[in-house]
Amino acid sequence: MSKIYDVTRTIKNTLAVWPGDANFSYQQVLDIQKGASVNLTTLTMSAHTGTHADAPYHYEDDGPHPAELSLEKYIGPAHLVTITRRNGGIVPADFDGHDLTGLQRLLIHTWVSDLPDDQWPEDFPYPTLELINWLGAQGVVLLGVDMPSVDRFDDTQLVCHHRLRHYGILNLETMIFRGVPDGKYELIALPLKIADVCGSPVRAILRGS
């Protein structure tokens, strides 16, 4: 029987978000304990809350929205690899010694996965153009990271986001790989079918033997 690992950050009102972004909150509109027939809540949150898929519209005006994204890229074989880099740019050499034969989807596990949901990483490692060019040359279709961005925190040009789109590589951010062994899995992480927005939370799982 296959084993399922949930690699999704829990969405709750204490979840750390990108500085300046909207915190998650909810309003109890109807309450059974107050005589209503059902409990009903209204959610307020950013499209980039917790574990999420960026839509290219996030960084390019002509980019697709979540409802238009290619779902097959979010389902399929994925390699989970732990790297030791604490900060700075992630390069292909960081994966030396790992078997990436048949690489289609790369999931990068760093120290950020060890942080509680309510803590923000102050100096996280980030992919480089060198890494993305390397992935593009191999035909990779998705890059997933446990960091909050595939670009350096203070990079307002979002050069790696743009380069990912150049190669047709989709990205997932703020995943959590704590306690998940390195190896090859089936990834399932579907964005919600939302029109006209810049991203979507996902429920991401890894399925393996």
Q: What does it look like?
A:
Strands 1-13-11-5-7-9-10-4-12 form a nine-stranded mixed β-sheet, covered by helices on one side. Strand 9 (142-145), helix 2 and strand 10 form a beta-alpha-beta unit. It has 209 residues and is mainly beta. Helix content is 9%, strand content 27%. The radius of gyration is 17 Å and the shape is globular. The chain starts with a strand and ends with a strand. Helix 1 runs parallel beside helix 2. It has two helices and 13 strands; from the N terminus they run E-E-E-E-E-E-E-E-H-E-H-E-E-E-E. The protein has one domain (3-8, 48-208): 3-Layer(bba) Sandwich (Glucose Oxidase, domain 1).
Biggest beta-sheet profile? 9 strands, mixed
CATH architecture group name:
3-Layer(bba) Sandwich
Cα(first) to Cα(last) distance is 7 Å
Find the count of extended strands (DSSP E, 2+ residues).
13
User: What name is given to the CATH topology?
Assistant: Glucose Oxidase, domain 1
**Helicity level, as a percent range?**
under 10%
Rounded radius of gyration (Å): 17 Å
| CATH class type | Alpha Beta
Query: Which runs of at least 5 residues are low in confidence (pLDDT < 50)?
Result: none
Strand content: 25-35%
CATH superfamily: Putative cyclase
Give the class from helix and strand content and strand pairing. Answer: mainly beta
Strand order of the largest sheet: 1-13-11-5-7-9-10-4-12
Using the alpha-carbon principal axes, give the shape. Answer: globular
* Number of self-contained structural domains: 1
Average of per-residue pLDDT values:
97
- The sequence of SSEs as H and E is EEEEEEEEHEHEEEE
